[in-house]
Fold these 2 entries.
Entry 1:
Amino acid sequence: MRTKGNEKAESWDKIYREGKPGWDINKPAPPFEDLFQNKHDWLKTASLISFGCGGGHDANFFAQQGFDVTAVDFASEAIKLAKNNYPELKLIQKNILELSPDYDQQFDYVLEHTCFCAVPIEHRRSYMESAHNLLKADGYLFGLFYRFDPPDQDGPPYALSMEELEKAYEGLFTLEDNYIPKRSHGRRKQRERFILLKKI
Ligand SMILES: C[S@@+](CC[C@H](N)C(=O)[O-])C[C@H]1O[C@@H](n2cnc3c(N)ncnc32)[C@H](O)[C@@H]1O
């Protein structure tokens, strides 16, 4: 049976099995490292869930900073890779759109990095609803949203605009920050945005 947004778990597995996936930069995203160069009132070591964690580099980085991290991915090969990379990481193999109600209000932060662009466009609202359900009151969804390109139908990664993103989180979150990071990796330069959303 095909479940919501789960159409392509097997396709992701296939890419992982074929070798090094193109998106895996084998280290945390530089803009996440840069976050810790300055003090941010909204950022405190607390519980965090990493959506579509892949090889787990970002999740591990936040764990090293003192966060209580849970990393989730629906591809068994991603979970295997993350476990191999970081045996101590808390991992869940599950569809991010199906974590509610089991994990409702358990996290202070939801971390995004090239997962939103992997979710079929018709499930973008469900992604936001899921993040909203998992967060505690006053929690934050933050991270690197990709790829801000002129509209096209090709994906994943699916292109998005600020208007489309706003439509997806309308009524669930307020926009607290939005900028183009200085140190994006490779072809992501100018095509990803750091976005901070606060749960309403
Ligand atoms: C482009 S990769 C990014 C991986 C990682 N965030 C990184 O930056 O290296 C997208 C990841 O999201 C996972 N993914 C896509 N849709 C998902 C869903 N509905 N639930 C859980 N994981 C999902 C894929 O299996 C894949 O590992």
Entry 2:
Amino acid sequence: MKLRGNVRNIRWAVQIASLVFFILIATAGLCVVTMGSFRVDCVFGVLQGVFAQPVWVLVLPLLIFVALPVIGTLILGRAFCGWLCPVGTVLDAFSRIPRVNFIKMLGNPLNKFVVAPAFLIGSFFLKYPSFCTVCPIKGICYSAGLSGVIKPAELALLAVPIGIELGEKRAWCRYLCPVGATLAFLSLKKFLGFKVDTEKCLAGSHAQVCRFCSKACPTNAITESSYKTGEISRTECIACGQCYDKCPTGALKFDKLPLAVHARSN
Ligand code: SF4
Ligand code: SF4
């Protein structure tokens, strides 16, 4: 099967399989892995744990389950957000709804880098992982199981992500999600990712044309500077491949990225 033009379909298949897996089969599996009396949370859950109970530092060797998302993000950036996160999948189901423009005040991608430390500080003072009590990923993972019983209180944790989705695509992922912020921070040093081949790109030589890629991008990761430097925001790109599908000249490539992070690629 030809890849270009079909990434969207492949991604939907992976997202739905992941959603079903985490809701029905591995209930809570995305949030917590228990080993005897030890509990290992998701990557942001562990960060909160370190702040809530500094003794966690002593069990760092047990954090092998954190190593997987950390290494995965260092290689592929925020691919988790684009391909596996059950909240992202639910939000993508709303991708074609008409938007109401109320998000302007909220709309700064740096907000998530304030929200994440705020919850870490909260965990320190409250002595428990404070974000986990409102985490919509946890809400989905705990919302049902093979028993088929739906838990409305857990599903209700999706209210904020879905509510602000009415304003902008992936607004939760772009502006507020502390898990996304943690992965975005790691993505600064990611090894692979999408970039623009400025030789092939029409926008570079014909300033007013094309830009199908930035119109398709749900996270605004492709900016005007991308057409000059070839760089796409490392922190905002979720590797969804929609730009790759839409580019008529094959200028979008998934490739090795330079080690040095360009200031405008953040
Ligand atoms: S869709 Fe392709 S050719 Fe068009 S602006 Fe984007 S990278 Fe350039
Ligand atoms: S730059 Fe491309 S792969 Fe990255 S989020 Fe935007 S559309 Fe998806």
